[in-house]
Amino acid sequence: MFLALKEIRHEKLRYGLIVGMIVLVSYLVFVLSGLAYGLAQQNTQAISSWQASKIVLNSDANDSLSQSLLTKKTTDKAKLTQHEAYLGQAGVVAKAKGQAKLSAQFLGISQQQFIYRRVKVTSGHKPVTNRQIMVDDSFKTNGYHLGDRVTLNSTDTTYKIVGFTHNAKLSVAPVIYGTLGTWRTLSHVTSDFQANGIVTERASFQPKVAGLSTLTMGQFINKLPGYSAQNTTFTFMIGFLMIIAMVVIAVFLYILTLQKLPNYAVLRAQGIPAKVLVTTTLSQAMLLVVGGLVLGAALTLATVLALPAGVPMGFNIPLLAGVTGGILLTGLVGALIPVKVILNVDPVSVIGG
Amino acid sequence: MAVLEVKHVTKTFGHASNEVTVLTDVNFTAAAGEVSLVIGPSGSGKSTFLTIAGGIQTPSAGDVIVQGNGLNQLSGKARDALRLNHIGFILQAYNLVPYLTVEDQFKLVDRVKPQGNLDTAALDHLLAQLGIRQLVNQYPAELSGGQSQRVAIARALYQNPDIILADEPTAALDSERVKVVGQLLHDLAKAHNKAIVVVTHDLRLRDYADRTYAIMDGKMTVA
After folding, report:
1. Is B51 part of the contact surface with chain A (CB cutoff 8 Å)?
2. Which residue of A has its CA nearest to B97?
3. Span A22-38, mean pLDDT?
4. A246 with A331: CB under 8 angstroms?
5. pLDDT in tens, B20-68
6. Which residues of A touch B50 (CB under 8 A)?
7. Integer Rg of chain A from CA
8. pLDDT for position B174
9. Does the residue A70 lie in any domain?
10. In this complex, is the C-beta atom of B97 within 8 Å of any C-beta atom belonging to chain A?
C-alpha cells in the first residue's frame, strides 16, 4: 500500500486519468442500472402493491391480461374466496379541461376484494361509485387535482378524481383505479363479462375450470409487453460495460506495470519479495477502482437530483451493492492480468554487462 | 573470515552452436572487513559474476556459498530473503524508485525489512558523509547523476548488510566523489566488518581495495 499510495500521489495526472475513466464507466453502469431498475419498477409497481401470488387468465389470452376476458359463467365455477380478486384492465387516455392528455392503465377492482383493501391512498379516498376514480400521484405532478373531472378515451362521461395513490404504475403508465362497472363501460363489454383476470394471494390456488390458465406473478410480470426485452437489453449493456471496465483497468495496469519493470527489477535484486510488488499492484488497482466508484456514485447522485421527476430512475441497496461489487470484482480481475509479468521480472535486466 | 565464496563457477548462455560461455571456472573469496575489487572492461563478465555472487542468477556449474549457505540448495524465496537480509546491491542504473523521495527510499526498506537497518543517527551520519543530507525531500528526477548514485549507495548501506555488491558505484562521480565513496566503502569494511565486492573499470578505486582481481573473457585472475 505504501508504494501504491506514493506512486498515485506522485503521478497525479496519470492516475487521475485512470480514475477519470473508472468514474465514467461506473457512472454509466450506475445510471443504466438505475434506469433498468426504475423502468422495471414502473412496469410492476401496481402489481407489487397487491402482494398477490398468482393470476388466472383466459387460456387463449397468451398470458396477456389485456387479451384475457372472463365471463361470469366461468368465474362462478372457479369457487373464489376472500383471497381472490377480479381485475379488469383497459388502456385509456385521460383528459381534464385545461390539462395535458395522459396515457394510463385503467384497473377495475371490486370494493369487497383484497386488492381494493391493499391499495394505499395518499390523499382523498378510494372510489365507491362508477363515476369515481383514484389515480397515481404522477397525475398530480401533471397538474391534476382532487375533484377534477376527467374523461377517459373519447367518451363524454366524466369521472371525478376522488383520491391519489402513490407508486401505482403498470407497463410504465400511471394507473387509474375504478370500479369493475367502469371497466365494463370502457371495455365495451356487457355484464356477462366479469373481468380480464383473477388475482389471488393464495399460492395454492388452482381453479379446475376448463379455459383458464394460472400464472405465478413472476411469470406474469415476465410476460408483460416489452418487460423481458427491456430488462435483457439493460442486462447486456451493463454486462458489456463491466467487461469494458475490466479491459480498461487491465490494459492501463499492464502498460503501467511494463513501465515500472526496471524499478521492480531493482527492488527484486534487493531481495524485495515479488509478493510485495504484486500486493502493491492489486492494492493500487483497488484504490483506483474505489476512488472511481465513489466519484461515479457522487456524479450519479448529482444526476438523479438534476433529472426531472418523470425519468424512471430508481435504486435500492441490493442493486447498489451488486453494481459496486461487480465493478470492484472486474477491477480486481483486471489487476490480476499484469501479475504474471511482475512475477517473471528479471533482476538481471537492470545490471549491466 | 570468508563470507562469500564463488567455487568453480561457469556460466553459459544459449545452446549447442549458439552457446556462449561468459564465466569459466571462476573462483573468488570475499572476507569480512575487506574490499575486493574486480576490474574488467565491458563485456568481460563482471556483471554476470556479480549477479551470480548475489544469488540473482544461478551458475551453469559450480556453487556460491554465502555465510555457509550454498545458493544452489536454496529456493527462490530463500535467496530473496538472503539478499534482503545479508546482501546490499549498489547498481549502475535505474537504481532509485522514481516516485519515492530520498527519505521514502529508506522508508520502503523499513517496510519490507523492519529490523536490522541503520538507526536514525547512523543514517544521518551516512547521508552527511555522502553529502546528500539536504536532499532527503527530493525525488530522483530532481537529482544529478552523481547525487542519484550516492543516494543508491546510501540505500544499499542502510540495510546494514554483511556483504555489499557494487556494480560500477563510481561511474557517474567526479574524482572528489570517487575518493569519498572509495573511502566510505573502505571504512565500512574496516569499521563494521563488511565484505565489499566492487566490479568496475574505474582504476581510481584500486587505492581503497584490499584485494584486486582482474576479469577478462570470463576468466578471473588475482591482479
Report:
1. yes
2. A263
3. 89
4. yes
5. 999 999 999 999 999 999 999 888 888 899 989 998 889 999 999 998 8
6. 351
7. 29
8. 83
9. yes
10. yes
CA pair distance A172, A168, nearest whole angstrom: 10
Which chain A positions have a beta carbon within 8 Å of B159's beta carbon?
Answer: 270
Residues A284 and A338 in one domain: yes
**Do the chains contact at A266 and B112, CB–CB below 8 Å?**
no
Q: Which residues of chain B are within 8 Å of residue A351 when distances are taken between CB atoms?
A: 47, 50-51, 56, 91-92, 167
Measure the CA–CA gap between A216 and A293, rounded to whole angstroms: 37
- For residue A142, the 8-state DSSP code is T
**Residue A120 DSSP symbol:** P
Partner A contacted by B50 (CB < 8 A): yes
Continuous segment of H or E residues that includes residue B193: none
ipTM of the complex: 0.78
Query: Grid coordinates representing A220?
Result: 406474469
Q: How many CB atoms lie within 10 A of CB A328?
A: 16
C-alpha cell at A147: 375533484
A256 and A198 fall within a common domain? no
Domain count within chain A: 2
Q: Which of A2, A13, A270 to mutate to probe the B interface, most B CBs <10 Å?
A: A270
What residue in A sits closest to B155 (Cα-Cα)?
Answer: A270
Of A7, A265, A351, the CB nearest to B50: A351
Tens-place pLDDT, residues A303-317:
989 988 778 888 888
Determine the Cα–Cα distance for residues B133 and B122; give it in Å rounded to an integer.
12
Cα-based torsion angle of the residue sequence A142, A148, A150, A156 in order, rounded to the nearest 10 degrees: -150
Instruction: Check whether residue A21 and residue A59 sit in a common domain.
Output: no
Q: Is residue A219 part of a domain?
A: no
Q: Which of residues 187-216 of B touch A (CB under 8 A)?
A: none
Contact assignment for A351 to B94 by CB distance below 8 Å = no
Compare CB distances from A262 to B88, B94, B111 and report the shortest one's residue.
Answer: B94
Are B1 and B189 in contact by the 8 Å Cβ rule? The answer is no
Q: CA B133 to CA B116: how far, in whole Å?
A: 21
Q: Please give the residue range of the domain that contains residue A191.
A: 54-202
Which triple of cell numbers denotes residue A339?
A: 501479475
- The confidence score (pLDDT) of residue A132 equals 96
Cα(first)–Cα(last) distance of chain A, in Å?
34
Interchain contact B82–A (C-beta under 8 A)? yes
